[in-house]
Each structure stands twice: as structure tokens, then as C-alpha cells.
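Batch job 17 of 40 flagged for manual review because the log was empty.
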Amino acid sequence: MHFRVQTDEMNYGLGMVIRAISARPVKPVYDGVLIESNGDGLVLTCTDGEISIKATVSALVEEDGCALLPAKLFAEMMRKQPVGEVDIKVDDRMRAVIKSRGSNTSMACMSAEDYPDIRDISGEYRAALPCNKFRDAVSKVQFAVSSDESRKILTGILMEVYEKETLLVGLDGFRLALQRLEAENEIPQSVQKDHLSAVTPGKTLGEVSKMLPDSNEKCQITFNSSHIMYSFNSVKVYGTLLTGEFIDYRKILPENWSTEALVNRSQFSDAIDRCSLMAREGKNNLIYLHLKPEMPMEMTANADRGDVHEEIDVGFQGNELNIAFNSRYLTDIIHNIDGEQVRMCFNSSVSPCMILPLEGNAFTFLVLPVRVFNK
């Protein structure tokens, strides 16, 4: 194998695929980057057995072939190369000779005999989302994904694909985050319901979101009953879907509420941040909200070291209410909301709080309160 490639091209491709390398590879071959020639130049591949990433890199291929090189060492070496063209040739002793301006390095190749054959996902289940909007939506639901491995399905993000929109949902049993993206999707006639659904591990989708460019270019998503593939730019990310029944989140979203507060997001966020500082010093990390007709919303937190009292002007409708929340849960939600005003909807001090946009349905957040007494 022999090729010439620009350092910036190779470094971009390596920067994408090396994200799939595990700190502790379960197999020796998972520590390598597979370099293969094709009609478009080179295909770089890394995998940890669960997530696999491929990137196509433009190159002048002098001799076709493939090589498996130590991924992290090769990536570090390429980053240290001078800007410009690099000549890489794999000799008969299975050593890669890397030549650039004034530099000559040799690196032993790894055996690629056991490297997995990673193929594109085929299937009729497809969706397409603008990369920038998809990336932002993932970041705004990921905080609500569970880390409890005993409930594996909740460690993933549910994707529901409808003809006119795509929904992303994360929930961990204490809070829920839903983002809705406008989209033009085609539902196959073979599907017996009005949407497609898949649950991707939060880790996989988190890596995808970090790689997506800040552009309106579409990310093409292809999936079947067990696997999913994300394609954008010259990159493809492959993952395994989680199996099992995701919680029917619609059943836990209240359809009506008895108390509603219209809140300025910035003021509410600043007040939460101040209260959280004191709440973390307490035993239960709680923030209390006190709502009364024709009165500002009161927000309090207390601990042995002191207490905080905030007042926020709100638009109020409904019944008087005192309710308490884990401060981290409220903080995570409010920091993932855009727009200057939000609606907070309640039914009682022990039922979930819904946080919605002032208009439309671009997002839905839900958080469970903490039951307290004599407060």
C-alpha cells in the first residue's frame, strides 16, 4: 500500500474516527485504525465493538491495499507532521514508512486478520435532519438520559420519526426532556403505525452530536431493527440499538393543569443558580417554589450555613401552590431552554411539573417534585 495525503485531510479524518477508540480496548485490534484504499481515496475506520466510525479522506493512491496502525500513536504522529503532503508506504515487512518534509518515521503495522467487517446499514427506515439542529436537540435531551445500567433501555435516547417531524426523548424516571424537529420523512407503507422509532445508546448519540458540523447540511439516518448509521460530510457512524420497551412517555405528560406560571427564563435561571449554591450545602439539595395569586413567585433554599430568598415576577393563573424540587434537576432543565419566556404548569405539590415554550411545541420538559412536609 502506498499513498500521498495532505496532513490536514488526514488529521480531520483521524480526529473523527479516533472517537471510537476505547481507553481499554476489549480486543487488541480495537486499538488500531484501519486504513483502506478505495476509488475516492482512503477510508479510515475505528471501532470499540459497539461504536464504529468511518471517514473518507482524499488522497493520491499509488498502490491499493490496507493497513492497521496503532490509532492513538499514528494520530499523534500525524498531528506532529509539518503542514503539506505526507507520503506513506507499507513495505513487505508490514511497516508503514511515513515521509514528510525533513521527516522520516517507520511504524509497525498491527495484524488486521481479526478486524471486524463493518458494513453500511441497509433498510428502508430513514430520516434526515439538519446537522446543527440535530446536534442542539441531542445536547438538550442528553442530560435526562439515565445512567442506571439496570434499566438499560433508559440509558438511550428515543427517536420517533413522523412524516413531518422527528422527536428525541430522554428520561431517567425523575425528569423528561423532549425536543421536536421539523422534518420531511417518508414512512414506508410496510409500517403499521404512523411513525418509526429507535432507541440509540446515549453514549453513541452523544459522540455523534460532538462530530456534527454547525451547518444546515443534512445528517442522513438509516436504521433497522438492530443497528443505526449516521452519515454526514464524509463521515459515517455505526451503532447498535437498544432493545426493549421504552417507557410510554405520553402517559406521564399531564394533559391539563390547575396552576400555570409564565416566567422570564433569564431571571428564573439566575435565581435558581443562586439558590442552588445554598441548596447544595443542605441535606437534601432542595429548592422551594411558593406561588400565590397576584404575588411574585418566591424561591427559597436553606442550609445550616444560611438561606436564600428570591422573588420573581410571573404571570400567574390558578391555585396557590408550594412545591419543592431537587435543585440539580431544575438547573439542568432551565440551562437547556432557549427563548426569554417559558410556561411552568402544575397540578399539585406531588405531581410532575411541565415546562413548555410560550408558543408552539418545540420542546417539553418534565420534572418530578420532592415530597416534603411542613414547608
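Reviewer: the log was empty due to a logging misconfiguration, but the result itself is present. The mean pLDDT is 94. Unflagging and moving on to job 18.
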